[in-house]
UniProtKB/TrEMBL annotation:
Limits of the PucR C-terminal helix-turn-helix domain: 464-521
Name of protein: Purine catabolism regulatory protein
Domain Purine catabolism PurC-like: 11-130
Organism domain of life: Bacteria
Amino acid sequence: MKEHFQLTVADMLKRKHFDNAEVIAGEAGLHRPVKWVHVVEVTSIRNLLNGHELILSTGVAWKDNENLFVSMVKEFLENKVAGLCIEMGTYMSEVPCEVIEIANEHQFPIIVFQKEVPFVEITQDIHSAIINQQYQKISDLENYSQSLNKRLLTIETYEDILQFIFSALDLQIIFRLKNQKYEFVPEIGWNEQNAIIDLIEGVNTLSTDPIVSSPIFLFGQDYAELFIYSKDIPISEFDLLILDRTATALAQHLLRDLYVEEKKRVEEFEWLQGWLEGEHPLEDIHEYLAENGVKAKTNDAAVLITKLIPFKEKSSQDGTYLKLLFRSVFEQNGFTVFFVEKRNEITFILLNNRTKKNLKERIKKAIESIQDSEFIRKQSSVKLIIAAGKFIHSLRDVHKSYQTAKETLRIQQKMTNKQIYHFYEDLHLYRLISQMSKHTDLQELASEYLQPVIQYDQKYNGKLLETLKAYLESNGSKQETSTKLFIVRQTLYHRLQKLENLLGEDFMEHEKRVAIEFMLLVHDYLSAPQPWRENQAR
């Protein structure tokens, strides 16, 4: 179909009634397409023209008025007429020089018949040719659509579809997935590519421009765009129809690809989730890694859970960039990364890809790089916390690291120390508190030691609990405690006296002090607000 173009003025000159016709002006415009033929013998024709008509006339309407003739030619140009055919001898003997100059300047063909010709027969002949060509276009379009639909069953990539439309139209094809680079079929030089891209991005193209496009929508969203570009030959209606059919086929193919990709993602999610739950034997794990092109240098690994806590109840966060950021940074620090995403939580499986076993130091370095990244610093709608599970030395023990990472996350959300990340191995007493809370009423146990202080604060707002924490953290240093609390020594002495009265004079002796410090941690752990409640309060 690449030779299947519109009928042009040049094609008209090959018809039987044009044997003795002569082009006297605008020969450079013989490529103009002809969509219809009009016989015009009046001067008011603006509302009769739709563009691309070949005008037949004896010139009777302007035979004695050169200015009117010039005005008519300008009106033809404004209405994108294909050309003007004039029968000489009856009313006109010559075409004015000014008309010829205008026609040459605008590449507007003027054809003269030196003797009388049958306008009716010319009209019938050309209209028959145009109508036959329209039927041929419909037939060719149907054949193209059927061939393309058959190919869709076996086509593996959208590049095959781009090649197919190029073979049909023999025009430059440009394709672009949203936010990706332009692709050219066939490939052309960088200078030509940039010129076309400038045309695409610099102007709003119309159907008569050398470049036209068809957007491709998936799920109501602008997903891609297909362009055709013709430098020399005007883009025809047939080209536009082919473009539209091809865009529809591309949408179907891309949708199928998305479906396959989503299905694969679901299967991958299920497999990785099974790995995190300890369901896969070591042989299956090595097979999965091999299929993904991963050759682990060690059996050391760790699981990280990253949680996005929105500051507002209905705020949401796209985790795509976060996953890319994590993958990039951890790969730079010697890890192979797999991840599983559920709601506002992303679980990362980190496989050590270096012979050194300093996992903790490298994970810390990676997290601090992420924390210092521009992306994280700009986040104002969510809070990021990271929980690292225990380090394991066998890939089949990933589930152990996962369980301890979940435990770390639970504990982390109840800690007063609100740093961005914690390691399971650093939690010490908090791990003990977490385990004890499953079997013992820690609230009652903490009350035995702290209830008098808590009740005093509730009644008098004495800030004794805050003072007790600071005093213990300062190892009994009164100067350091008063500095930390921003109070004068006399106020501190008064509070310490109250604490002695409530807790006993021996509250700083070793065993009792250790017990009180432990119960302070228990109190903080039990009284920490749940994340969702915290969000609602804000």
